[in-house]
Amino acid sequence: MSTVITVENIGKKYTISHQNREECSSLREAITSSVVSLSKKLVNPFRIILPSVSNRLLPETEDFWALKDVSFEVKQGERVGIIGRNGAGKSTLLKILSRITEPTTGSIRIKGRVASLLEVGTGFHPELTGRENIFLNGAILGMHREEIRRKFDEIVDFAEIEKFLDTPVKRYSSGMYVRLAFAVAAHLEPEILIVDEVLAVGDAQFQKKCLGKMEDVSANDGRTVLFVSHSMESVFKLCNKAILLQNGTRAFYGATESAVTNYLQQDHGGLSKKKWGAEQPGNNLVRLRELYCHDSNYNIRDVFEVSESIGISMEYEVLESGHVLIPAFKIIDGFDTNIFDVHDVTPSRKRNIKEKGIYISTVWIPNNLMAEGIINISAAIVTHKPFHVHVFEKNVLSLHINESISADSARGDFSGHFPGIIRPLLSWDLKKITPESGD
């Protein structure tokens, strides 16, 4: 595959002004100062009051590098995710690639026509109708009128705005803006499609529709997609490579799985394992020592297949004998939906008093239960009667559930979006009822 985007050591510098504190005083302080000054003039109208130079400093400036020494290459047909925390430089990078802003240092080379969707309504004229803006955007992309007309019906159907086609877009909701803008950008055959987090404005169903379209234009048409998102599930579904930005620099560029693992480690300081040192969370009865996720062979892992069982182990120390202490976990998906809570209520243990010592409790999530995506794991140790939480650590572990089309799961041979927060492989019964003769 040929290289369509080459980025070499680009940087983007902004100059930030910092006002002296007195310059940013409140309205009340400004009015009070004016009244005092006026009263002094009334008492002695011939007195000249000079401003205090020492207390009124000139604004200071500071150079801020939103991007610094970022380099990478993207080949034709690749779907590249750009991930990182807020302020990492993702949107700045896309604006440079879209030629909206120029880099301060470095250079970029782009081969092919670029369509960008960075902000709601980008490239739309508010006074023109949806119909007119489709032709306007097509012209901006360098399309001939006949090319746009050929794609027109597909764009309208995808955007689902047929009833409002001849309404000025200034009257559109933000969701309608996004639907039309994405439909135009994706259908007018650009060689490179650049999409920012703006898709989050649309509803969940439309977001899935957009992900499917981006995957389709890349896989079937050989077009390149650059996609910024805070949804790691979306990045996993769409992208085969990802760039991780951290404080304006490229922290990682490679396989999506590795990039997301690095990103989650930034947020949690660990991923599938967490070990505490001297500052162990807990109280005078019990303290957490270590948490980790592993497979059936006790190999610690960050990524699991839907068809694999997942072990979650908790190591803790009981400091005082004579208490019923129950380990528990909370399992949450990438959209902060609580999938389930689990407590160790095994009949032989749920009322057992624990003696002093170090314990390891392990719970097994059976295979073919969890759906694909990111899951976060919180850990707790509780007493049920009376209920008391001795320790609770939120979102300590994170891992990714992957689902290969070849895996033996509830998906079968279906390759489209499979909804649901769990993916149980259930048993089915089949009976053939032979109709009686003559029925």
Written description of the protein model:
It is a single chain. The relative contact order is 0.10. This protein is globular. The protein has a six-stranded mixed sheet, with helices on both faces. It has a five-stranded mixed sheet with strand order 12-18-17-14-15. The model is unreliable at 21-25 (pLDDT under 50). The protein has helices at 27-43, 90-97, 130-140, 145-159, 174-187, 204-219, 232-238, 256-268, and strands spanning 3-18, 60-75, 79-83, 105-110, 114-117, 192-195, 224-228, 241-246, 249-255, 273-275, 286-294, 303-305, 310-318, 326-333, 338-343, 357-365, 373-383, 388-402. Among the domains are: 64-112 and 191-268, P-loop containing nucleotide triphosphate hydrolases (Rossmann fold, 3-Layer(aba) Sandwich); 273-402, Coagulation Factor XIII, Chain A, domain 1, CATH 2.70.50.60. By secondary structure, the chain is an alpha/beta fold. The protein contains eight helices and 18 strands.
- The CATH class of the domain at 273-402 turns out to be Mainly Beta
Q: How much helix, percentage-wise, in residues?
A: 10-25%
Q: Please tally the β strands and state the result.
A: 18
Helical element count?
8
Q: Architecture of the domain at 273-402, CATH level 2?
A: Distorted Sandwich
- For the record, give the distance between the C-alpha atoms at the N and C termini, rounded to a whole number: 61 Å
* CATH topology term of the domain at 273-402: Coagulation Factor XIII, Chain A, domain 1
Give the radius of gyration. 29 Å
Which regions are unreliable across 5 or more consecutive residues at pLDDT < 50?
Answer: 21-25
Estimated structural class: alpha/beta
Shape: globular
Q: What's the mean pLDDT score?
A: 83
Order of helices and strands: EHEEHEEHHHEHEHEEHEEEEEEEEE
Strand order of the largest sheet: 5-6-7-3-8-9
CATH superfamily of the domain at 273-402: abc- transporter (atp binding component) like domain
Tell me the β content.
25-35%
Largest sheet: 6 strands, mixed
